[in-house]
Amino acid sequence: MLTLSGIPQDILDEAGLVGNSALVRERPKKLIQQLICAKETPVKKLHNEGHTLVVVYIRKYTNYHVDLTVAIKVSPAIRRAINGTVYIGAGSYKCSDRYFIIECYHCQQRRSR
Length: 113
Description:
alpha+beta; 5-stranded antiparallel beta sheet
């Protein structure tokens, strides 16, 4: 799972966010997925072949202006194709790992003995 931060909220303007149904809540996720595939030709090809690229959540942050943080679930092939940077619209955004595993449970058990 990868995290993208600092994405401007205005990319969601064309999503048509009216109402409170499940369909309306899924539109921004689909739009961001389409925007990622539109700019990244290798990613689009891999996604069309059946590799995983799913927007898991979108969170809005307000500092001086509204930014979005987006978590995406990707297959290893798409992760390699992204190579640390995702292009959405006219901007480029660095990816970071969403979950950091420092040590597995089994290794922790051995250390405590």
